[in-house]
């Protein structure tokens, strides 16, 4: 099923696989990732295992997986292509925007992408100013003691 899904994927797609977090067998490894790259995919997200971690780390192709295992993937098995999946509670619909960095992966519903992008840019600008204030020593931290006092924690 995964091989066919790769064949059907289009340039720029992110390949999202829900393997239920199972690390018994890898869902893909170096060979399938090479195929994904040559098809022009933008990345891979797998709620399951991968193998060949050295080749994954050596490349610049984004791969996010639940873990690594030495056991190769099965060539046959159940599955569906181009359907909604849930990865640890995060629902991913076909066509949604997938963003990932070292902190993890998020899914942005396609219909909400513009509004979420605008909100994210605003939040980033606010945090940039806040970080500059922290680095300049211009942040009022009295809220920490006030919050702890309200919680009954008197640290004197």
How are the elements arranged and paired?
Blueprint: H1 2-8, E1 14-28, H2 30-38, E2 43-50, H3 53-58, E3 63-68, E4 85-87, E5 90-92, E6 97-101, E7 104-108, H4 113-135, H5 142-150
Parallel strand pairs: 1-2, 2-3
Antiparallel strand pairs: 4-5, 6-7
Give a quick precis of the structure:
This protein is 35% helix and 29% strand.
Describe the structure.
There is one protein chain. The chain is α/β, with parallel strands linked by helices and 156 residues long. The protein folds into 2 domains: 2-108, Ribonuclease E inhibitor RraA/RraA-like (Glucose Oxidase, domain 1); 115-150. Helices cover 35% and strands 29% of the residues. The protein has 5 helices and 7 strands, in the order αβαβαβββββαα. The protein has helices at 2-8, 30-38, 53-58, 113-135, 142-150; strands at residues 14-28, 43-50, 63-68, 85-87, 90-92, 97-101, 104-108. A 3-stranded parallel beta sheet has the order 1-2-3. α3 (53-58) links the parallel β2 (43-50) and β3 (63-68).
> How does CATH name the architecture of the largest domain?
3-Layer(bba) Sandwich
Compute the average pLDDT. Answer: 94
| Cα separation of the termini | 62 Å
Estimated helix fraction: 25-40%
Query: H/E order of the elements?
Result: HEHEHEEEEEHH
Q: Residue ranges: pLDDT <50 for 5 or more in a row?
A: none
Instruction: Please state the overall shape, judged from the principal axes of the Cα atoms.
Output: elongated
Proportion of residues in β-strands: 25-35%
Count of separate DSSP helical elements: 5
Domain module tally: 2
CATH structural fold name of the largest domain: Glucose Oxidase, domain 1
Main beta sheet strand tally, sense and closure: 3 strands, parallel
Radius of gyration: 21 Å
């Amino acid at each position: 099923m995964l091989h066919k899904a790769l064949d059907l994927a289009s340039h720029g797609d992110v390949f999202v696989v829900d393997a239920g977090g199972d690390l018994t067998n890898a869902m893909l490894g170096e060979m399938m990732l090479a195929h994904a790259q040559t098809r022009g995919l933008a990345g891979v997200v797998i709620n399951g295992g991968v193998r060949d971690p050295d080749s994954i780390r050596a490349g610049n192709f984004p791969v996010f997986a639940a873990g690594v295992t030495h056991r190769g993937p099965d060539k046959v098995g159940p599955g569906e292509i181009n359907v909604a999946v849930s990865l640890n509670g995060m629902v991913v619909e076909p066509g949604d925007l997938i963003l990932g960095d070292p902190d993890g992966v998020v899914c942005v519903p396609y219909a909400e992408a513009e509004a979420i992008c605008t909100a994210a840019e605003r939040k980033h600008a606010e945090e940039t100013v806040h970080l500059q204030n922290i680095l300049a020593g211009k942040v009022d931290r009295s809220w920490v003691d006030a919050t702890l006092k309200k919680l009954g924690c008197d640290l004197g």
